[in-house]
Amino acid sequence: MAQTVEIIDVTKVNETVKAAVERTTQWSGKVQPYAKDIVEHYNEEAESYEEMYLTMGYHDHEKVNEIACELIPDQATREVIEVLDMGCGTGLGGDQLFKVGGFKNIFGVDASVEMMAKAKAKESYKQTIELWLGKPETFPKYLRNRFQLVVCCGVLVEGHCDKKLFDEMIMAAKGRGTIIIFSTRDHYLRDYGYQKRMDELEANGTWKLAKSLLTHKYDKLGDQNLGRFKKTEIITIKSRGKMAQTVEIIDVTKVNEIVKAAVERTSQWSGKVEPYAKDIVEHYNAEAESYEEMYLTIGYHDHE
């Protein structure tokens, strides 16, 4: 059944919301990737952010959770996989995933510490991390090839992240089968080159489209406008499944001496007769300190 939406009277919106709406006009028509002073803006808006957007009928976070639950229907799986909320803000998305979706291991990243303080207070995140998004060259290694669900709400917008954010989504995704869900307005797909980059990633086998949803944004406004906001703006929510694994190639000439020595010591097993080469236990006892560094350096991932 269709959900009944309560339409607000924009003439009765409180002054906090009116002022917050007015301040958002600075992003209109801004060039990507970042408008000036974006972090300062969100640090200042942390107190009024949720009230403003929820008053108008913002529900990207609800739709993203619905798709996540549809594509990951097993509750036991939701409780154990790691989830990355990119541009988590005040935590609306992570809170919905945690309390409604049943996802228990959610990590949030955002450039605004004040917004993340609100997210942390919800106690739905395992960890919140200060991070500028849209800069793949600085995306932390400990967040790469890790998450089985990656979500992103309200970041692919005017004056915020450009199409490089898609590369970071791929970096964060843990191999084949990872679900990536993000929202953006329909016309941004064209205006900011998002669709072109998405198509390129599909053409080269990096990901494939799993689901796409069109829905109204700010539906509590009805036929009214509140500042620059109106119901007729359409939001596109797309879910992508990661296919190919992006691999960082190492320069073997720069491998450290510990790894080189460990590799050399493994040569003793070449051509040995089963079931056991001599002194195998002594070998592994001696290799315990360097074992992981050696194998992970050269791309071992049987465990994954």
Question: Can you put this structure into words, describing what you see?
Answer:
Residues 83-170 form the Methyltransferase domain. Pfam families: Methyltransf_25 (PF13649). This is Methyltransferase domain-containing protein. It comes from Clytia hemisphaerica. This protein is α/β, with parallel strands linked by helices and 304 residues long. It has two domains: 15-241, 3-Layer(aba) Sandwich (Rossmann fold), CATH 3.40.50.150; 252-297. It has 13 helices and nine strands. The chain has helices at residues 15-23, 38-45, 49-56, 60-71, 75-80, 92-99, 113-121, 164-172, 186-191, 194-203, 257-266, 280-287, 291-297, and strands at residues 82-86, 105-110, 127-130, 149-152, 179-185, 207-216, 225-226, 229-230, 234-242. It has a seven-stranded mixed sheet, with helices on both faces. The protein has a two-stranded antiparallel sheet with strand order 7-8. The two termini are 41 Å apart.
